[in-house]
Amino acid sequence: GAVVSQHPSWVICKSGTSVKIECRSLDFQATTMFWYRQFPKQSLMLMATSNEGSKATYEQGVEKDKFLINHASLTLSTLTVTSAHPEDSSFYICSARDYSGYQETQYFGPGTRLLVL
Amino acid sequence: GNSVTQMEGPVTLSEEAFLTINCTYTATGYPSLFWYVQYPGEGLQLLLKATKADDKGSNKGFEATYRKETTSFHLEKGSVQVSDSAVYFCALFEAGGTSYGKLTFGQGTILTVHP
């Protein structure tokens, strides 16, 4: 299947700093990517839908000024956590939508673990 | 809105035991249903899917049947292996409207298989 990578795989930062997470589709083009947040022992919560060349669509309750999303190319979306605080510590997972073939499939990245001190 | 409910875990089984993980859903239309698996330290992988009522998805010995009358999509495997230890997520996808392209996940079920 198609491969989606995330970088970094984990990051520790100080409170008040900003952190950028990259999501790349390695062998297909993705006009749409999704960003999720996963708390320990909990399910994935969709944060936003990232569309190439346009603004992201945020889910209700997600602060768009806090979680900046940029989808500047067909293979790269970035999530920037601005002015991070300890409550932003979480596991962030992206997925990319692949339209090739006869079906649409979402492929997931391995996730990025963020710890804000 | 859409929702997915999975049986609470963790589930602990011995190798070669029979596995069932229950999943029920609520949706406004006619969703597609999925099971994803997440191995330690890895991203989610699609395990199987079904796109309409009475469809059976199957892969790697796992099966699930789309039951519209009971709004269920229970995951089963006749004989589990240690390598099946992972977190399993049930999810639904509803085309059209504001939910297009969005997956709604259940809370996940941790499966541990002992030798």
Give a nutshell description of this structure.
Chain A is mainly β and about 120 residues long. Chain A has strands at about 5, 10-15, 20-25, 30-40, 45-50, 55-60, 65-75, 75-80, 90-100, 105-110, 110-115. Chain A has no helices and 11 strands.
> What are the secondary-structure elements of chain A, in order, as H or E?
EEEEEEEEEEE
Proportion of residues in β-strands of chain B: over 45%
**What is the mean predicted local confidence, pLDDT of chain A?**
90
State Rg of chain A: 14 Å
Cα separation of the termini of chain B: 41 Å
How many helices of chain B? The count is 0
Q: Give the oligomeric state.
A: heterodimer
Mean pLDDT across the residues of chain B is 90
Note down, in words, how this protein is organized:
The complex is a heterodimer of chains A (about 120) and B (about 120). Chain A is built from no helices and 11 strands. Chain A has strands spanning about 5, 10-15, 20-25, 30-40, 45-50, 55-60, 65-75, 75-80, 90-100, 105-110, 110-115. In chain A, the strands form 2 sheets. In chain A, strands 2, 4, 5, 6, 9, 10 and 11 form a 7-stranded mixed sheet that branches. The radius of gyration of chain A is 14 Å and the shape is globular. With about 120 residues, chain B is mostly beta strands. Helices cover about 0% and strands about 50% of the residues of chain B. In chain B, the strands form 3 sheets. In chain B, strands 2, 5, 6, 10, 11 and 12 form a 6-stranded mixed sheet that branches. A 4-stranded antiparallel sheet of chain B has the order 3-9-8-7, with no helix packed on it. The chains are: A mainly beta (about 120), B mainly beta (about 120). At the A-B interface, strand 5, strand 9 and strand 10 of A face strand 6 of B.
